[in-house]
Each structure stands twice: as C-alpha cells, then as structure tokens.
Amino acid sequence: MAAGGQSLPGVFQALLDHLQFIYEKFKENKGETVPPGFTLEEFWTKLSDGGKLLSHETTKTSMAFSKPPLPNVMEAQGIATALDAACMNLATVAASLPAERGAILFSEVQNATLAVFKALVPVILSIRDKIEKGAEERLPMTGSVWEACEQLGSLPKNNLQAVNKQLQKDELLVMDALLEVEEELRRAGHGECQDAGILDAGIGLVKTARAVARRIAFTVRFNGDCNSPEHVTQLDQIATQMARISPGVDDFVTTLYPPVDKQAASQTAGALFHCLQSNLLLIRSSHCAGEGGELVAQWVNFLLGASNHNAGKVLAFCAGSAPPPSNPPPT
ω before 259 within 30° of 0 (cis)? Predict the structure, then answer.
C-alpha cells in the first residue's frame, strides 16, 4: 500500500484505494489454476485463520481511533498497513480455491469473501472522515465485519455440501410460491370465476414443480458425492438446472391471478414443463440415481408424466379445448 500523504485522512484514503484494487482483482479470479499440493483441509484452516486475522485487525484499527490520544500519522500508517496485509492475506487464500473443486462451492467462497470486504469499507470511511467523532457509529460497522468473517468458518466444506445448501434453498422458494398462489387465489374466490379450471390446473403444475424440487434435493442429499471430477461437474449441473425451477414457477404464477392472461399462461406453462423435464432427465442420468437407478427412474417417470399432464391441462384450458383426463396428484 502506497503512503497516503501527511494526514490521517490521506492514510486511510490510500487504504481504501488499495482495498478497492484487491476487491476488483479478486472478483476477476476464475480459479483456473490449482496450487501445488492444494488440499481442502488446509484451505479451510487458512481461510478461517485469515478471517480471524482480519477481524482482529479491524477491531484494533477501530479501537485505535475511538478516543484520544489519536495515533499520529506514522502510527496510523502502521495500523493501516497491518489491516491492508490482513486483507491481502484473506484474498490470496480465498483465491487459491480451484474452480475444479466445484462451481457452486467456488461461488460460495467468493461471495463470502467479497462480503467481508464490503463490510470493511464503511469502517475505513468512518475513520477517514470522522476520526474519533465516529467511534460510536463504528461499533455496529465493526460488528458487521466480525459477522462476515465468522461466516467464512460456516461455509460448506465441499461441493456436495454447497449444492445441498442451494437445492434446499431452491426447494423452499418453490414451496413459498405454491403457498402464496394458493392463498391469493383463495382470497380471489377463484372457484367462482370462469377461469377456475385454468387456475386449478395451474396449481397442479406448481405442485408438480414442488414435488420435482423436493425429490431432487432428497436424492442428491442421500446419493450425491464429490469424490471425482465427473461427479463434481454433475452436481454443478444439477444445481444450475434446479435454480431455474423457482424463476419458472414465478413467471407462470404471475399469469394465474384473475383475470388470467391465457396467452402468457400457455407460454410460461410450456417453459416450466420443459424446465422440469430437463431437471428430471438430468437427475436420472447422474450418479445420484445410484447403482442401477431403478428407484429414481420410477419417480422420475411418474413426475415426467405428472408435469406433462398438468401442463397439458393448462394449455388445453387456455386454448379453450377439453383438458386431458385427470391423473393422481404427484407425491
């Protein structure tokens, strides 16, 4: 970090400038190289230690400017240099994670590290602009840095854990959408309106989406592993595909509120069906299907049929023709 001039504000402006440089360079990291001798166990130890060091240096910096006597410019330079070094250390460690260990895991680590740097900026700005007068407002700011650093220690430790975390989140989003549309349509008294058939068929399709999300999350949780590059890649593909279900449900649900936009409902129902189909075919062909894959194939085939049936009912109602015969609800 370059010297910041002959003033306390100048010292911390230089620190901010270098922190911005670290932040931008870290965002550009794609994890394309594998450090010699890299192991996840050593990585997590170093990342945790890096977070603790940055938390400590942030606290020390904040406390140094909490009350008189304030550090002089030379002392402030030393304090800022130590904080800058802690930032560099954390960025270097976090950037050492190879993307080949899993795109979802890589994203988790990158986002958590960037969150630490974002939390640190207000602390430095407060010192630069208010010196000791901003001591009271810096307490919660410093606490935010602590929390962000602590999150580094609670991150998923491998790609399977990272994918399971995302799939659980996606499953809950689909469930929330289902509960929301059922409640809103109840309030609207949809059973009495002319579009009741479309609405019921639409809810059936969303229930199928929820069943797909739940089954995939369950299957990955119990059958998934990340013990080979091929399996790591498959987990990333499953997570990427499943992340599309909730937006597809949201797009479809927005067309169901009376008066129903039949053209939009038809288009979004078709898109949601293809999304569900892609997810089901992917999980059936992955290692998560287990040896033989018979059990997974059974529920995949059932949900393929259920999604096709419910989407077909929506399309038929929207086109003004008779819907296909009913089938049992998805489980």
Answer: yes
Would you say 162 and 104 are in contact if contact means Cβ atoms under 8 Å apart? yes
CA atoms of 132 and 36, how far apart (whole Å): 45
Distances (CA, A) of 98 to 88, 107, 153: 18, 11, 18
Q: What is the CA radius of gyration of the chain?
A: 26
Q: Of the candidates 71, 62, 55, which has an alpha carbon nearest to the alpha carbon of residue 7?
A: 71
pLDDT in tens, 236-257: 999 999 999 999 999 999 998 8
pLDDT, tens digit, 9 for 90 and up, residues 119-144: 999 999 999 998 777 788 899 999 99
How confident is the model over 157-186, as a mean pLDDT? 92
44 three-state secondary structure: helix
* Token representation of residue 103: 């795109």
Question: Whole-model pTM above 0.85?
Answer: yes
Helix (H/G/I), strand (E/B), else coil: 97: coil
Chain centroid to Cα 5, Å, comes to 41
Instruction: Give the span between the Cα atoms of 299 and 295, in whole angstroms.
Output: 7
**Average pLDDT, integer, range 316-329:** 69
